[in-house]
Design brief:
The chain starts with a helix and ends in a 7-residue tail after the last helix. The protein is α/β, with parallel strands linked by helices. Helices cover about 65% and strands about 10% of the residues. It has 21 helices and 10 strands. The radius of gyration is 35 Å and the shape is elongated. The protein folds into 3 domains: about 230 residues, ABC transporter type 1, transmembrane domain (ABC transporter transmembrane region fold), CATH 1.20.1560.10; about 170 residues, P-loop containing nucleotide triphosphate hydrolases (Rossmann fold, 3-Layer(aba) Sandwich), CATH 3.40.50.300; about 80 residues, Rossmann fold (3-Layer(aba) Sandwich), CATH 3.40.50.300.
Amino acid sequence: MFNFIARLLRFSGKDAWKLKASAAISFAEGMLANFPVYVALLVIMKIMDGTVTSGYAWTAFLMVLASLAARWILRYSFVRMQSDAACRVAARERIKIGDLFKRFSMSYFTDGNIGNVTSVVTGDLSFAEDYGMMKLDDVISGLVSIVIACAFLVWVDWRVAVASAAGCALSFAAFHAMEKVSKRQAKIRMEQQSKITGAVLEYTEGISVIKALRMSGSAAKRIDASIDDACRHAIDFEHSMVKPVTNYLHCYALTIAAVLFLSFWQFFNGEMSMPVVAMVVLFIFRIYLPAMGLATGAAMMRVMEAGLDRYEKLKEVPIIDADGKDIPLNSFDIAFEDVSFSYEDKETLKDISFTAKERSMTALVGASGSGKTTIANLIVRFWDAQQGAVKIGGVNVREMTCDSLLRYVSMVFQRVYLFHDTIENNIRFGKPDATREEIIAAAKKARCHDFIEALPDGYGTVVGEGGSTLSGGEKQRISIARAILKDAPVVLLDEATASVDPDNEKYIQEAINELVRNKTLIIIAHRLSTIKRADQILVIDGGRIAERGKHNALLAKGGLYSNLWQRRQKAKSWRVTRV
């Protein structure tokens, strides 16, 4: 329990002082909570002695009102300070983890960790924000109640105080056993939640494919299995907690019974007055309630602790630019020097060497899976090459931070992702401090200003998550506008016209021409007709550069590129025939 408090304070960082201050306020408020009972005891004793006066009664009444007002002020201050700390800590940690995500290798996100990441950001941090700080108050209230109970009973009678102390000692032993069970079960529970989250995300992301292929039943089996496992472990969790929680509560029940028995026994022996016995009866049932409430808080504390464990583990994932520096670039030629790369055990690139000169166009062509996209990914450090060096402007990209590298690169890929936000803000991602005039100018160059203006709210129109409310061509042009606004000297282009209709292709090609003007361009080409003017064409085959040169020279060579060109020309004339 005390380890939990210490860890919560470390987690809170610079806002830990607010938690300490709120703990002090909570302690004071807990002390005042029992003040009316003490006043009542004094009044009852005066009544029994026949010495009570109206003035004394009014004084006692006003003291109780003052204590209640002070408690209200303390409780308000406590809640405000505690809530402020919780929100600030959670917001700061979310920003930290978001910054780390940008610096993880893409392999982390392709190794089945999406459910874990989502659970940490949306579940663990939210749980800490909503319940973690509140549990701190419960712990303090429980400890204060035990201290006050023992102090009060020492004043009443030492034998009653010894019985109370013995009962509290037994309860602490039971609490320790309860914590051991909850800690073990909480970890299992968090793992099950990650599996459910991952299964649901996979199902929802592939729902269009699932519906199209009528696989709803079979595709839902993973979700059903995850939910069944979570249900089974939740029941096991509850079953395993029944015995230690019951033992903990029984310790306090026996303590209350022992205190009452000794009080009445001493009363009948004439060793304790009736006002004191009445006070013990009123006091004892109330004083231990916060401590007994720790039984339910223990499970929540351990669930939160398991969440913090998972969060800390996420922060320990190696970042790809740990040794990188913010290096300014003065030239923007791109060089691959004997680069080899493998996805786990699958070799994708082998001894790749080429130079893309500044302000030139280099096209990458080849069959699917040959390694074209991997080359683009290595340029922007989505992954790092296992061998060789990738350089921009003569600087090895491994020496740069991801932010400083990506400052000089714009990327436009086939699969465009737009955020659930306004069109204006989606374009502004290319340059966060851009003015509205700059955004409109970029949209005009990307040939998307007209269709944006035709939307109900223009640039203020909110698009669906992933851009689901726009067509493929519209999303592509907004993506290009974003890249134009960024105005980076290096452009990576995964043929943006490969999967759009002819009408949109015309606008997108015009937008691309605006984007790549005077840039170092790496283009992954699917339609070979778009790269006839490339300064160099690299034909990738099986992870190697099979051919290189310009369009006409490669055609005359009659090799792999020539075969790709001929097949593409034949594909243009395909038609569906009825047999």
